[in-house]
Give the backbone structure.
Amino acid sequence: MNAETTNARRATRTRTTAETDITVEIDLDGPTHVVEVTTGLPFFDHMLDQLGRHGGFDLRVHAQGDIVVDGHHTIEDTGILLGEAFAEALGDKVGVRRFASGLFPLDEALIEVALDLSGRPFVVYDVPFGEVLPLGDPPFNPEMAGHFWTSFATAAGITLHVHRRAGENTHHIVEATFKGVARSLRDAVRVEGTDLPSTKGVL
C-alpha cells in the first residue's frame, strides 16, 4: 500500500492482493473534469463514472481482478481503496459542510440519501430489488452495489444511509444510488467556512 498527497484535496492509492491490483486517483475539487475508469466490468465502470461526474471529482480508477470468478473482489476492493483515497484527500475537514441529503430520481426510481463525514463509519443500505438481474457483460451483480457502498463508507469514515423509495428497473435503481451518493458527497465536501464542523474539535 502506498499513498501520496499534496496541499490540494487529492490523493492516490494503490492496493495489490492475490485477487486484485487497483490504483485510484481522486481530486475532490475536480479542476480538470476528467473521469477515467477501467475495471473489466462495464456496468461498474458506468457507475463509477457517474460517481466522479456527479460528485464533481477528478477520478481515475484502474482495476484488474479475478472477474473470471466473479466481480465480488474487484468491486469490494475498489470500494475500500476509493474510500481510503477519499478520506485522505478530505484531510482534516476544516470548513467542510459535512452533512448532506436529498431525494434523487431516475425515471421511476427514487433514492433517498443522507450522509455525514463524521469519521464514524456506519451504513444503512435499504435498496431491495423485485428481481435481481445481472447488468453488463461480464455481469455486475446489482446486490454488490450495497457491498460497494459499505466498503467505501467504512474506509472513508462516513455515516451513510441509502433507501429505495420507489423503483422497478434494476439499472435505474442502482444508477440512482450512485448519482444520489455522488451529489451528496459533492455537497458535503464543499468548503463553506474556516472552522471544523464539530463540537468535539475533531472529525
